[in-house]
Design a protein that fits this description.
Layout (H helix, E strand, L loop, with lengths): L3 E10 L3 E11 L4 E5 L6 H9 L6 E6 L2 E2 L10 E4 L11 H11 L4 H14 L15 H13 L5 E5 L7 H18 L2 E6 L2 H7 L2 E6 L2 E6 L1 H6 L4 H6 L6 E10 L2 E6 L2 E5 L2 H5 L8 E6 L4 E3 L9 E10 L4 E7 L6 E5 L5 E5 L1 E6 L10 E6 L5 E4 L17
Parallel strand pairs: 3-8, 3-9, 6-7, 7-8
Antiparallel strand pairs: 1-2, 1-4, 4-5, 9-10, 11-12, 11-14, 12-13, 14-22, 15-21, 16-17, 16-21, 17-20, 18-19
């Protein structure tokens, strides 16, 4: 077992395609680190460099303090679990799991012992004589994990291992992988584009975009204190509402101007944030669960909205609201390609499963004053005073 360090690691394809740009990241011994981001953000390339499947253009990659830049994949003592399982169809489960040990020249009794130990951990003891075609998708994925476990590697590398599974099985396997990783205590780097997987599995999560590390933090810190607009709009389901607004400062009081509507900024944010001067453009963020739909008449600190549509999810309703008199105010959303684009101003609020709302209704909403987020309108960076838990690239 060992720690993993990316120190200014860069990968350039061709003349100018920077798949990974100056990545600096440390994974502690025994830590479960998740690399997450949209397709093309560089997370899989980073994993492949760690495995030795891609050459490093510049920077240093170390495992257990030893530089790995020019070390062959077979000599790195890491085990990789792929998206497509990569099992040998003509071999049994036991043979698939023990194949690498056989190639390594270990004795048959030792191979059988290690395979049985791994099969017990993975609940595969009843399937050791079966071939892959006789297994379910989840069982095949566990066999692929077993093949990695028997090697007792210094690190596990997992590349979108659950993407071929159905929704229910993904949930089950998320729990299973996290349980096994905790049991074995091996440093693990897990790549996914699914931010729910990232938030539920990782000890820490590293968010990537365009080859650059955006933020690395615990899941809760990432959710509560996003370092920039992209992280805020990428994490959470649904993600944070991001509204372009103007700031007005009168004496010691700040006010957000959202079109023709105004919202007082609690005094606490003057101490915790570097808010700009009066008249400056700003991006205001609020999570859907922090948007309270009022059932009484409009209050002094409320915003007037119109219901555009509702999504009934069983346990809750997501209400999509347009901001009345929004003027030139915009909402920012993260596209599938990972870019931030402006859309007509809308908010998403969470309501109880039996809330009586319908398209066209006019509703007053109030924002939870303890959970405001502010971002620079030009750079997208959080205006919150930086802390060590908000490491960014």
């Amino acid at each position: 077992m060992a720690d993993i360090t990316f120190d200014g690691v860069t990968k350039v394809f061709g003349d100018d395609i920077r798949a990974v740009d100056n990545l600096s990241l440390q994974v502690a011994d025994g830590e479960f680190m998740v690399l997450v981001g949209p397709s093309g953000c560089g997370k899989t390339t980073a994993l492949r460099m760690l495995a030795g499947l891609e050459e490093i253009t510049s920077g240093t990659l170390s495992i257990g303090g030893a530089v790995m830049n020019n070390v062959l994949p077979k000599d790195r003592d890491v085990a990789m679990v792929f998206q497509n399982y990569a099992l040998y169809p003509h071999m049994s489960v036991a043979q698939n799991m023990g194949f690498a040990l056989k190639i390594r020249g270990e004795s048959k009794p030792e191979i059988e012992r290690k395979v049985l130990e791994a099969a017990t951990i993975l609940h595969l003891t009843d399937y050791l004589d079966r071939r892959p075609k006789a297994l379910s998708g989840g069982q095949r994925q566990r066999v692929a994990m077993g093949r990695a476990i028997v090697r007792s590697p210094r690190a596990f590398l997992m590349d979108e291992p659950l993407s071929n599974l159905d929704a229910q099985l993904r949930v089950e396997m998320r729990l299973e992988i996290a349980r096994i990783q905790r049991l074995l205590g091996v440093a693990t780097v897990y790549v996914t584009h699914d931010q729910i997987e990232a938030m539920t599995m990782g000890d820490r999560v590293a968010v990537m975009r365009g080859g650059k590390l955006q933020q690395v933090a615990t899941p809760q810190d990432l959710y509560d204190h996003p370092a920039n607009e992209f992280v805020a709009g990428f994490t959470g389901s649904p993600p944070m509402n991001l509204l372009r607004a103007h700031l007005e400062n009168v004496d010691t009081m700040s006010t957000l101007v959202l079109g023709r509507q105004r919202l007082e900024v609690p005094a606490q944010y003057a101490a915790s944030h570097d808010l700009p001067d009066s008249g400056a453009e700003i991006v205001f963020g609020i999570r859907p669960e922090d948007v309270e739909v009022l059932t009484h008449d409009e209050a002094y600190d409320s915003i007037t909205t119109r219901v555009e549509r509702r999504e009934a999810l069983g346990s809750e309703i997501l209400v999509h609201l347009s901001l009345l008199d929004a003027g030139d105010t915009n909402t920012f959303v993260v596209t599938d390609a990972g870019s931030l684009v402006a859309r007509p101003t809308t908010l998403v609020a969470k309501m109880g499963p039996r809330a009586d709302v319908k398209a066209g209704d006019t509703l007053s909403v109030r924002f939870a004053s303890d959970n405001f987020h502010f971002f620079d309108a030009t750079t997208g960076l959080s205006l919150r005073h930086q802390t060590t838990s908000m490491a960014t690239a």
